[in-house]
Amino acid sequence: MATVLSNFGTWKEFLSDRVEQAKSMGLNEDTIANLAFEIGSFLDEKVDPKNEEQRTLKELWDAGDESERKTIAGLMVKLVQHS
């Protein structure tokens, strides 16, 4: 996981692959967004940012309430789907 997190582009590719896997398993968009929120919460609590992009996301995550964090998670899913 450390290698995946060291580069933001690699992280986006990893997340994109996981989103595609979730879709192929039949998970809907809401479920995928909820999983992204859970992953974001885990990363916020357990992982130090490895680059400027992650640091910015952490600052946004920390500034937001639960609803705003869910929005950030959903936007990350959309971002990797359009990459």
Write up this protein.
The protein has 83 residues and is an all-alpha fold. The chain has helices at residues 2-6, 8-24, 29-46, 52-63, 66-81. Helix 2 crosses helix 5 and helix 3 (29-46) crosses helix 5 (66-81). 82% of the residues lie in helices and 0% in strands. The model has no long low-confidence stretch (mean pLDDT 92). This is DUF3243 family protein. InterPro entries: DUF3243, Uncharacterised_YmfJ, YmfJ/YflH_sf.
Major sheet: size, sense and barrel closure? none
Number of alpha- plus pi-helical segments: 5
Radius of gyration from the alpha-carbon trace, in angstroms = 12 Å
Mean pLDDT over all positions: 92
SS elements, strand count? 0
Helix content: over 70%
SSE-based structural type: mainly alpha
**Percent strand:** under 5%
Overall geometry: globular
**First and last CA, distance:** 21 Å
What letter string, H or E per element, gives the SSE order?
HHHHH
Low-confidence stretches: none
Organism: Paenibacillus glycinis
Protein name: DUF3243 family protein
Pfam families: DUF3243
InterPro entries: DUF3243, Uncharacterised_YmfJ, YmfJ/YflH_sf
Name the features.
83 residues; mainly alpha; 82% helix; Uncharacterised_YmfJ; DUF3243 family protein; YmfJ/YflH_sf; DUF3243
